[in-house]
Structure formats: structure tokens, C-alpha cells
Specification:
2 copies of one chain form a homodimer. By secondary structure, chain A is of the alpha/beta class. Chain A contains 13 helices and 17 strands. Chain A folds into 2 domains: 4-61 and 372-423, Roll (Urease, subunit C, domain 1), CATH 2.30.40.10; 63-368, TIM Barrel, CATH 3.20.20.140. In chain A, 35% of the residues lie in helices and 24% in strands. In chain A, 59% of the residues are buried.
């Protein structure tokens, strides 16, 4: 039987979306990668546990980024004067085309993987590009970080420049199969996720084939949904048979329902029917407040989604978002919900700090299994945060320290980081 | 004649609100505290200038924070679930009351001054509390930082708890005079600014007396204006004689017009008449996008103000805002302008990067004189930025580096900082 280990410190975690448990000078005990629980004193049955004393540092779950684009990392913070469809054509597509060259991909992904390793994130859903080689390169590099990630070779056979799109359904499927042969079951920390870019980029024929691959390989799915009003109108035109955008995935078995999860980024303008289907099928929503703001998409009604019991986490959506930090996504989620409340719809109250923290940890973590909190049976993903730089003229409660860590994360440092029970050595 | 000095590096600065000048490997020359200009090569008349080579670092003007509350610094990032008037009663007033004890003020302001010194800000307009002693303590500490700041003892004789408000107009005026006697002309880097908290906190009698002090001492003024709809309705009730909020300052000579400037924070809901008076009187607007978001005030129509030729800069408004960084205020100014554009009013286009950078440097700098750009005759406020952590898979243009520095400022470090020609040694 494996040795029991533990972290001692100032422990905070969500127990549900409305509740953050705070325990001072407490013990987070785990065996292998599995959490046994958080205790005020070490229970007799765990006597002899090997404890790492984190002193006054704050220990929280690792954060989950449910939506990001690794090849866009190089130009985050640039070109923020465009809306979605122009932004794709002028920024995203030209940059992604460079990843046909393996050497370029290696250079770019090395930087991405290093920065993710050093971040507060322990779990990620990542879009690569359409290139199988470059996607495998990214998976190799993410494997080495020790973070747990899902990485997708992108599929796109229409409405993209010739230099980037897949030239036929057959070639798209062949390259996707090649990628799956090289990645399914090949990694300890990384797994492939099917990634039709979004409906405007994939013909119905291609969607159908991706659906078959999902059936065959039992894979998770990631894509985009109802981000922008022009995009929604375009999907309606491309798929006149669909009643709503979500159906264009659902028809081909790419919208939840299976054991391997589906996550859809954005859902800014999902209508009632789409919401119902997401709920019924257990589709996860990746809320990306910075991206939705930067490319002027709008503000998703997250309060409603949470109260309806939708599954929901946060995404950085780089480079629509500029910040890799899920702490910043938590803050922006609260901030934009306040603007939505005061400018759009007074019936949906702003998100609370508890809800934002939940989405960035436990809510997003659920996509990866029992991840994102410190309850018994969950996997040990943890951050040990040094918030010394935030000391003030009086003492803060632990709950207050947590809130300040989230709002002022750039002033804090990560003293230690664990993913699935393994320590990640950062910086 | 003083020695000519210079900084060599990658230089960026606004020449007006629509234009950022970028010059690679250029020389920023200055004598004493005054800029001579930026040059590709050193002109013969300045041969022998003593040059500091900043290599590949990016050199930009120091940033101006037109609105912040030093006593609230200790609880930034906390209590963000309240709107303005509740937030004042539950958070701001109880904390400010602690500053009646000099020792507490010293502890709190020492932290504030240290962090401002280490920030990207070189110029600040600061609210203290109503206490003369504590305000002088803050001025002493700000003086030592070498930053250029205006600091105000707050006036407030109504609608605040007994434990905090000034008990009579007479005692308020006496304490204000005491403070002015101890601070006018006493500092090299700090000067007093008259600070009626806002109209709901000041009786007409007190406003009248503050107006007289302005006349007598020729002082600048700072206050709040049209931040929140409930606040505006309250002002209307308190001053039924006023046609709009701005008149409640203007009537007593506290709304621009003089050589010593006036700055009003927020102006989220200023109507046409108020805007006209601001323009006519040369009142500065301190746009505080994070605070306006955090306490759910709304989004100010900054595009309109800029196009109308209003004078405008950015404010952190801690602790309504959590971040001291004017880089973050620039980003948020752009972001909220996009949400305003897509949710409220399509006739006002989002702010450009140029405009946000202008407001944070040259726009706000103007409040302090010839400050905030690198044109000849301006005071030398400069930041030397190390953006090595932002290197990517390809080279960026200098203009792109600047944009990434602003969006990703927390990944950069300040290698050197100057205010009014003097180097500030940070960290």
C-alpha cells in the first residue's frame, strides 16, 4: 500500500457552487493521486503520514482551463480591434498556417508549454491546428510538463483560406486517424480530444465522419458554440435544416451524451432550446469572459446557466483572451456579470466570488473526472500560494486572503504545484 | 548649464490621442527635468550627452493615476459584491475611520507608498481621509517615493457615520486650514489638492468654504461626479436648486476654470449640460473602468468625451478598483468600451489601443502640466520596461511589443523609472 502524504497549510476549496470551505492550519491528506480528505488534526488511521508543512501559505485546488488555442499563444495581446470573423481571417488563420512547419511548431509550443507549466492551471482543453505532426509535437511537450491536458488536432474543411483548410473530407479523416493512431493511449498525461473547429469550418460530411471517429475511439469533443450573432446567422445559413446551432453538432453525435465529455466554448447567445439540449446531454460550457469582451462578442448569461444546473467551467481562450490566468478569468467573469446586470438584464444577479471560484476549479475540473476540489476521492491537483506581497495594515481572514489572491494574483507566487498527485516543479 | 542626459532604447509615446510614435534604437534626451526630444541619432548640439543604454528595453512615458484612495488600499480585492452607496457604508467608511490613529495611518500608508513607488505610475491624485494628521503622514511618505503626487484631506460633513464625518463646517474648515498650513509649499514632490468627498458628503455651507479656500490658496480640486444613478438622484434631492450634479461643485468655484486644475472621477452618467460645462471649464475626467465595473456603476461614454475634446485620463480608483496598474486600466478601458458598443450603443465605437495608451500617459499627464509624453519641453517621466518574458516564436514590431506590454504587463518588469527627471530606485 502506498504511503500517505499530506500538505499542511491554509486550505480553501469549493464544496459546491455556493460554498467555499476554509480551514486554517489544516491537513490535506492523499494517497498516490487520490485525496483522503482535509482534517483539522491527522486522524489516527493516517498517523505517520508524510507531511509537507506549507506554513502560512494558502492551498487551493489546481485550476482548469476548459478552452485555449496553443498556436495563438504567440500573438495574445495583439489585434484586439477586430470582431470574431475578421479576427479569424486576419490573425488566427495566418498564424496557424505556420504550424505546417514542424520546427516552427516546436519553437512556439515550447514557449506555450513552459508558460502553462508555470501558471496556476493544472488541467487544460487545448486546440492545436489542423496539422497532425504539429499536434503530436504539442502533445509531446504537454506530456513533459506533468499537467493533465486534452489536446485536439483541429478539423476544418470549409470557409478558411486554401493554405490552411483541409482539402477534402477524406484527407481530413486520414490525417485525423493518423493523429489518433499516434496519440490514443500513448501518453500518461495527455489525451486526444476531437476538435471540429466550429460549424462554419466543417461540412456536414466532415462532421459525420468525426462523429464516427468518436464512436470508434470513444473520445471527448471540444468546439465553439453561439459566440457571436453573425456567426449564429451564418450557421443557420450553412445548415438550414438545423433549428439551432447546437443541433449541427448533435446530429452527428458530437454534443455530449457519452461517457467521454463534450465542451463547447462561449455559449454567449444560446437560446432556450439549445440550453435544454446542453443540459439533457451533459455538455460542458467553457465560459471565456476575456475573449468574449476582447472580440466584442457580448456577455454570456452565466447566472442562468448555473441556476439551471448546466455544467460550466472557465476558459482563457487565448488569443481571444490575452491572459493565461484562470484567476483573471474568475475576476472577469464576476466583472462582466455585473455589467450585464446593470446594462442588460436586472433579473440575473451578478456572479458571486464563490461561483467564480467554483467555475475555475471544481466546475471546470469535473470535465476531467473527479478533479477540482479537496473532497475525499478526488484527484490531488493543488496550488500552494505565497501571498506575502499582499500583507496589509491589519490581518485578513483566510476567506479574505483567498479573495485577494484571486483579484491580485499577479502579486502572488506559486510556491508549489501538484497535478494528479505529482509535484510539478515550476520556474 | 546642466549636463544633457539621455536614455537609449526602443521608444514609444503618444503625440496625440490617435497616434503613437515608435522609434527603435532612439535617444530620449533631457536636461535637468526637461525633455529635449527623441532622436534617431544624437544631434551635434547635444554631442557629449551622457547616455544610459537601455538596450532592447522599451521606454515609455510614466503613467498617471488621476484617481485613487490611499486609505482603501488595504482592502482592495475585497467586498466586491456591493454597489456604491452600500459599499461606502459597509467597507470604505469603517476602514477610513481607523486613520484617526496616527500609528495605524503610518502602517497603512507605508505599504501604499512602497507599492506605488514600485508601480508603473509616476503621477497620482490621491484621496486621503478627513484626518489632517494622517493626511500629512501620507504626504510625507509620498514625498519620499520621489513620485509626483497631489494628496487631499477629505472633507465630509454629512451622510457619513458620526465616527467619521466632520462635526461642523467650522471644525472642517479649521482642520483643512491646519492641513494646508502644514503642506502648501512644504514639499518638493507633493502638493495638497482640495477634496470635497462628493456632494452627498458635503453641505452647501461646507462647499462654499472649500471654494473660498481654493480662492485663497490657488489650489487644485478633486472629487467624484455622476458615478451611479442612485447617487445622481440623491444629489438632485440634496441640492434641489441644481440643474445637474456638476453645478453643485461649480456654484462654489470647485469645477475647473482656474489655473490649478480640477479632476472629477467617473462621469459615467454625465448629461449633455454637465458635459458642456466640463468642456467649457476645462474639468478633467478620471475614467476608472475597473471601479465602475466592480461596483456595477456602468460604462462611461469615453469615446464621446474624447471626440468632444474633453480632458481625460485614467484612474485606478482603489479600492473600487483592485489593481493599482494603469496598464490594466488601459486594457479595461478598451474592454468595457467594447461591451458598451455591443450591448448599449452601437454609435460609439470601441476605444482604440492608441486612445487607451494616450489616456493613461499623455491625457492624464496633462493634469500635472507638461507631462506624459516625450515631446520637447515636457517633464521627463519615463519607464524602462523589460519584456523579455514575452518573447514569442517570431519577432514583434515595436508597436506590437508595446501592445503586449500593456495587455500582459504583469509578465514584464520595470527596469528603471524616472519622475520629473529623477530616477526612482524601485524594489
Amino acid at each position: 500500500m502506498k504511503k500517505i502524504k499530506g500538505l499542511k497549510g491554509q486550505i480553501c476549496f469549493s464544496s459546491d457552487r455556493k460554498t467555499i470551505i476554509v480551514m486554517e492550519n489544516a491537513y490535506l491528506l492523499y494517497r498516490d493521486n487520490e485525496i483522503l480528505g482535509v482534517f483539522k488534526t491527522i486522524p489516527p488511521e493516517y498517523a505517520g503520514a508524510q507531511i509537507r508543512d506549507c506554513g502560512n501559505h494558502v492551498i487551493i485546488p489546481g485550476l482548469a482551463d476548459l478552452h485555449t488555442h496553443a498556436p495563438q499563444y504567440g500573438y495574445r495581446g495583439l489585434g484586439m480591434d477586430l470582431e470574431l470573423l475578421d479576427w479569424l481571417n486576419q490573425r488566427a488563420f495566418p498564424e496557424e498556417a505556420r504550424f505546417s512547419v514542424r520546427e516552427y511548431a516546436e519553437n512556439a509550443y515550447r514557449i506555450f508549454a513552459r508558460d502553462m507549466k508555470n501558471s496556476a492551471t493544472t488541467r487544460l482543453c487545448i486546440f492545436a491546428t489542423r496539422h497532425a505532426d504539429a499536434t503530436v509535437c504539442l502533445m509531446d511537450m504537454m506530456e513533459e510538463t506533468g499537467l493533465k491536458s486534452m489536446v485536439g488536432k483541429v478539423n476544418m474543411d470549409r470557409n478558411a483560406p486554401d493554405y490552411l483548410r483541409e482539402s477534402s473530407v477524406l484527407s481530413a479523416v486520414n490525417e485525423t486517424k493518423d493523429w489518433l493512431d499516434r496519440s490514443v493511449g500513448k501518453y500518461r498525461n495527455v489525451q486526444p480530444v476531437l476538435t471540429p473547429r466550429f460549424t462554419p469550418s466543417c461540412t456536414d460530411d466532415l462532421m459525420e465522419q468525426i462523429g464516427k471517429l468518436r464512436e470508434q475511439y470513444d473520445l471527448p469533443v471540444q468546439s465553439h458554440l453561439s459566440e457571436n450573432r453573425d456567426e449564429i446567422a451564418w450557421v443557420k445559413k450553412l445548415c438550414p435544416w438545423s433549428k439551432f446551432y447546437g443541433e449541427t453538432y448533435d446530429r452527428y453525435g458530437l454534443f455530449g451524451k457519452k461517457k467521454a465529455n463534450t465542451v463547447m466554448a462561449h455559449c454567449v447567445y444560446s437560446g432556450e432550446e439549445e440550453q435544454k439540449l446542453m443540459k439533457k446531454n451533459g455538455v460542458f460550457i467553457a465560459h471565456c469572459p476575456e475573449s468574449n469582451t476582447n472580440i466584442a462578442s457580448g456577455i454570456a448569461p452565466i447566472r442562468k446557466y448555473l441556476e439551471d444546473g448546466q455544467k460550466i467551467g472557465l476558459g482563457s481562450d487565448m488569443a481571444g483572451g490575452s491572459a493565461e490566468s484562470i484567476f483573471r478569468a474568475m475576476v472577469l467573469a464576476i466583472q462582466v456579470s455585473k455589467l450585464r446586470y446593470c446594462l442588460v438584464d436586472k433579473s440575473l444577479k451578478p456572479l458571486t466570488f464563490e461561483e467564480a471560484f467554483y467555475m475555475g476549479s471544481m466546475g471546470g475540473g469535473e470535465f476531467f473526472g473527479k478533479v477540482g476540489t479537496f473532497q475525499s476521492g478526488y484527484e490531488l491537483d493543488a496550488l500552494v500560494i505565497n501571498d506575502n506581497a499582499l500583507h496589509g495594515p491589519y490581518g485578513y481572514t483566510l476567506r479574505e486572503r483567498l479573495e485577494r489572491i484571486v483579484y491580485l494574483s499577479e502579486r502572488c507566487t506559486i510556491a508549489a504545484k501538484y497535478a494528479a498527485g505529482k509535484e510539478i516543479i515550476i520556474k
